[in-house]
Amino acid sequence: MANRARTSLPRTLAAHAILLAYTAIALFPVFVIVINAMKSRRAIFAHPLQLPGPKSFDLIGFQTVLSQGNFPLYFWNSLIVTVVSLAFILLFGAMAAFALSEYRFKGNLLMGLYLALGIMIPIRLGTVAILQLMVATGLVNTLFALILVYTAQGIPLAVFILSEFMKTVSADLKNAGRIDGLSEYRIFFRLVVPLVRPAMATVAVFSMIPIWNDLWFPLILAPAERVKTVTLGAQVFLGQFVTDWNAVLASLSLAIVPVLVLYLVFSRQLIRGITSGAVK
Amino acid sequence: MGALSLSNVCKSFGTVDVIQGVDLEVADGEFCVFVGPSGCGKSTLLRMIAGLEDVTSGEVRIDGARVNLTPPSKREIAMVFQSYALYPHLTVRDNMGLALKQAGTAKAEVAGAVQRASAMLSLDALLERRPAELSGGQRQRVAIGRAIVRRPKLFLFDEPLSNLDAALRVQTRIEIARLHRELSATMIYVTHDQVEAMTLADRIVVLNAGKVAQIGAPMELYNDPANTFVAGFIGSPQMNFLRAADLGEPGETLGIRPEHLTISRESGRIAGSVSHVERLGGETNVYVTTDAHGLLTVRLFGEHSFAFAETVHLTPEPGRSFLFDRAGARIRR
How much is the pTM? Predict the structure, then answer.
């Protein structure tokens, strides 16, 4: 990889300096949240940028979070919503992408454009209609309502990315499967899906973060105690007059962990997805 | 058994007619090659026989039974693809056995069929490997093995040698010819390479723009082309096309193969100057620019040397030329 004829030390240093600077900027807010979560209230306000020392170290925030409210339940709710939504997005997105890229039928192009429209129009514009729909179907205050909305929100991007990737899967391979008597479902699940796995990981990561972080739909569609998600749960500590910053920061720090784990699961595939095509 | 019959087969994509009324009878055990330039529809025709493309109109029959609406897996065919199309997640053994397994054949029987095919192609040492661990030539042998295992009525080959290098191509070509003798199966083979067509075929179907230009045995096409397209397509270097009127012959075009033009420094019927010489050792190709007929090719056997821009005279050998009318059809004398 390192080709000395094509790189020079100053250029390498400059590139690394820019990347490091960007990393620092991107990680700074996370860093501030995590260090302050482990400090006493006084220390947060006195020296917000200082690392927790022997004097300022305090786990009161975490204690509050774990004793007040029902955070294990909130985490569980968030996890269920994110994982199930992701599974639906990947399954239905990939199936739609396969149909659009593989079969010639009337309205193929139109259907593709219709699905792509979802990328451009934010789903929140339809909040009122969605709420009416959920009320009418009795799905308010269920996790299923959130899962449906997030699946709808994620499918356009999934179809868009995956259909491009599916076009690159060898037609001969699919035809070989047809001649050998594989059903279209087997061709899809056994031949095509494994070959577009990196692209699916890309879609998973891009879809996962907005779902996990969302506050809007949980607040509107599922505000009840037993279906609260983490981001909504953390709002308990944000009051009109008093805000328990220790608890807010602690809950946010904890909320980072599950996405981090999911990200690490997908990232190996993700890097392959982003770089695939660059090298055959 | 494996006779194929196409009657007035047509294929259109939207308003584009890709195949325009092809009639063909392939007898059991015959090796039939579809040849033509890219875009002539030869692959589409093969895919229609395989059932991978719908037939717009006309009939496809295998052993007399109409198969227009039969799915590919029920047509008792096997296909070998240019890109090999092996299943990446299966071993060579499973790749070869998959079709039988899908058809519900007993395990022992599948194993036996795989064993016989792998012995024929000396794949025994590779059976447990995955396609990614094989070279291009080995992959194509596995793909051919996968076809043999099914004992199909028809073998369909879609440019199977195009991805191989020159040496391997010759080797695999001989292998396919040997398999055809041993299996005495019906084979339909698509290629754009006339050498493959000439060396493998019992009968060649030359396709041009979705229509059959001529059907015949390799030497029939070479010695008795029906039109300028076939005359120009079969034979390398390409046949020379001269203006018949200038040579006092009837018709529009006079075709003569490069080996049937004699070249002389002193005298001849057509004067020209040497524009390029290709010396291949066994033969020498001389390209001569003439005023009346444009660039002509002369093929000489053995080694010869000509200087660039040297004036030479060409004479067509009597009785070796073909005459064509304005539309390109052959005028038979």
Answer: 0.81
